[in-house]
């Protein structure tokens, strides 16, 4: 590894700093004979999987809760306020966030490689490179927020939604710079398995966010301005807390101070993240496109509210799926890097079965509470009825989303980012979105038709990912 960041990094993501897996094992899994052997090996692999997934799930749960709390309070302000927050979050803020998530993914490779090779001083340098790139992206995104009202009108949103969302977007500009500082430090700490620090900061941010949302929006009735200020403050609290944790000397040799070398080799550092950026952007832009088309329906405010609530619920399920995505990626990449193809393949089986069971459990809970949970997000009886009608489709989406996220983690661990990115674009935007639009408008299915398009895209991508995994020669991959 060269210090200018120009070396070709490994495709595996190392979070535990050990090429032999969590327990330092240097042998592949043996033949599995009978149910007893299968159960024993399944339990062993499950422990390794949840050791990695647990903290990642908890952190994702807390951070996703920030926007959910904001949407809940906005929903009780009125349907137009909820629609404004939802549209700003999914369209205006969602576009640059997807790009920044992808750009920061370069750290998963670079920091993982440096930590695994005991070149600890390189981790801090790579984090600084990512800070530079993401802050440039945050500055470039500012005009999108400034002219959010005009952009949304151009995209066909109603004048009332566009106006309120535009006002909210202006107050949300600081959030982008918080992302630019927080995402690199998160990847930096994850590469060193300092996941508990990230989780503690996340839960503190969630508690503070809930209290100040209740105080400023619920009690003092300061409206959407208060919602934006509290949300900005929560993300900046997370970014600053992680920054101070790093500066406090808790990372040893990994942080040795700021360096001008952070400005060297930025292009080579940027190139490794392009495929992953496409994958992440497509996931976020898919939801953005569906919300956008919901705004074209006759009952635009009701449709956008119902769709945004359903996407929000799906997002909660995705917090679990995200943790399994990270864990499956690490397990597969570690075992492939350790020349353990049978363990890598068995890890795929365990993570896939686990994600399927989790998805089914979430769906069962959702179906049983379908008449109660919509009232949490909105006082409007019309919105609640729309959400209740969407619940069966939402349940199906949860199952496919959990499995798809896990299989995507396997793809990342195996280094298949580029083909999966092409595949995702076809599934989502050639089949998913057009199908949803046709069913919503031509067959008069409304917001349910749009969601059917989402299910079609998810189902197709999940099946193709499963097919890729089934035909893979794991010995050759290793």
TrEMBL record:
<dbReference type="Pfam" id="PF01554">
    <property type="entry name" value="MatE"/>
</dbReference>
<dbReference type="GO" id="GO:0016020">
    <property type="term" value="C:membrane"/>
</dbReference>
<feature type="transmembrane region" description="Helical">
    <location>
        <begin position="131"/>
        <end position="152"/>
    </location>
</feature>
<feature type="transmembrane region" description="Helical">
    <location>
        <begin position="90"/>
        <end position="110"/>
    </location>
</feature>
<feature type="transmembrane region" description="Helical">
    <location>
        <begin position="224"/>
        <end position="248"/>
    </location>
</feature>
<feature type="transmembrane region" description="Helical">
    <location>
        <begin position="420"/>
        <end position="443"/>
    </location>
</feature>
<feature type="transmembrane region" description="Helical">
    <location>
        <begin position="390"/>
        <end position="414"/>
    </location>
</feature>
<keyword id="KW-0812">Transmembrane</keyword>
<feature type="transmembrane region" description="Helical">
    <location>
        <begin position="346"/>
        <end position="369"/>
    </location>
</feature>
<protein>
    <recommendedName>
        <fullName>Protein DETOXIFICATION</fullName>
    </recommendedName>
</protein>
<dbReference type="InterPro" id="IPR002528">
    <property type="entry name" value="MATE_fam"/>
</dbReference>
<keyword id="KW-0472">Membrane</keyword>
<dbReference type="GO" id="GO:1990961">
    <property type="term" value="P:xenobiotic detoxification by transmembrane export across the plasma membrane"/>
</dbReference>
<keyword id="KW-1133">Transmembrane helix</keyword>
<dbReference type="InterPro" id="IPR045069">
    <property type="entry name" value="MATE_euk"/>
</dbReference>
<comment type="similarity">
    <text>Belongs to the multi antimicrobial extrusion (MATE) (TC 2.A.66.1) family.</text>
</comment>
<dbReference type="GO" id="GO:0042910">
    <property type="term" value="F:xenobiotic transmembrane transporter activity"/>
</dbReference>
<feature type="transmembrane region" description="Helical">
    <location>
        <begin position="450"/>
        <end position="470"/>
    </location>
</feature>
<feature type="transmembrane region" description="Helical">
    <location>
        <begin position="268"/>
        <end position="294"/>
    </location>
</feature>
<feature type="transmembrane region" description="Helical">
    <location>
        <begin position="49"/>
        <end position="70"/>
    </location>
</feature>
<feature type="transmembrane region" description="Helical">
    <location>
        <begin position="195"/>
        <end position="217"/>
    </location>
</feature>
<feature type="transmembrane region" description="Helical">
    <location>
        <begin position="306"/>
        <end position="326"/>
    </location>
</feature>
<dbReference type="GO" id="GO:0015297">
    <property type="term" value="F:antiporter activity"/>
</dbReference>
């Amino acid at each position: 590894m060269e210090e200018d960041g120009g070396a070709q990094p490994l495709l595996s993501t190392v979070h535990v700093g050990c090429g032999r897996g969590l327990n330092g094992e240097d042998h592949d899994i043996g033949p599995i004979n009978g149910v007893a052997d299968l159960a024993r090996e399944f339990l062993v692999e499950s422990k390794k999987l949840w050791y990695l997934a647990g903290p990642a799930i908890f952190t994702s749960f807390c951070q996703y809760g920030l926007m959910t709390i904001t949407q809940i309070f906005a929903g009780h302000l009125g349907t137009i306020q909820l629609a404004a927050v939802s549209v700003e979050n999914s369209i205006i803020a969602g576009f640059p966030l997807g790009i920044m998530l992808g750009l920061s993914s370069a750290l998963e490779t670079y920091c993982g490689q440096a930590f695994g090779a005991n070149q600890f001083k390189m981790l801090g340098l790579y984090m600084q490179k990512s800070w530079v790139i993401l802050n440039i992206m945050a500055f470039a995104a500012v005009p999108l927020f400034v002219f959010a009202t005009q952009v949304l009108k151009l995209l066909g949103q109603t004048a009332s939604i566009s106006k309120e969302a535009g006002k909210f977007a202006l107050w949300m500009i600081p959030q982008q710079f918080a992302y630019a500082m927080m995402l690199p430090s998160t990847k930096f700490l994850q590469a060193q398995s300092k996941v508990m620090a990230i989780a503690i900061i996340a839960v503190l941010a969630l508690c503070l966010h809930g209290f100040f949302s209740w105080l400023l929006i619920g009690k003092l009735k300061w409206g959407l301005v208060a919602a934006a200020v509290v949300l900005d403050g929560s993300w900046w609290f997370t970014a600053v807390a992680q920054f101070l944790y790093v500066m406090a000397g808790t990372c040893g040799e990994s942080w040795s101070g700021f360096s001008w070398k952070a400005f060297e080799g930025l292009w080579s550092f940027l190139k490794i993240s392009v495929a992953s950026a496409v994958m992440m952007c497509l996931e976020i832009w898919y939801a953005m496109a569906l919300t956008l088309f919901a705004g074209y329906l006759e009952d635009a405010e009701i449709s956008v509210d119902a769709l945004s609530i359903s996407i929000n619920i799906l997002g909660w399920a995705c917090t679990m799926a995200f943790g399994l995505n990270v864990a499956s990626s690490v397990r597969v990449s570690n075992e492939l890097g350790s020349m353990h193809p049978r363990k890598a393949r068995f890890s795929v089986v365990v993570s896939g079965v686990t994600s399927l069971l989790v998805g089914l459990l979430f769906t069962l809970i959702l179906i049983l509470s379908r008449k109660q949970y919509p009232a949490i997000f909105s006082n409007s009886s019309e919105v609640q009825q729309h959400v209740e009608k969407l619940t069966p489709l939402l349940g199906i989406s949860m199952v496919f989303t959990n499995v798809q996220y896990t299989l995507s983690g396997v793809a990342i661990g195996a280094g298949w980012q580029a083909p999966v990115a092409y595949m995702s674009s076809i599934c989502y935007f050639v089949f998913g979105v057009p199908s949803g639009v046709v069913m919503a408008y031509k067959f008069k299915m409304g917001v349910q038709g749009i969601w059917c398009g989402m299910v079609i895209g998810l189902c197709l991508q999940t099946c193709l990912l499963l097919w890729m995994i089934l035909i893979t020669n794991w010995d050759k991959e290793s």
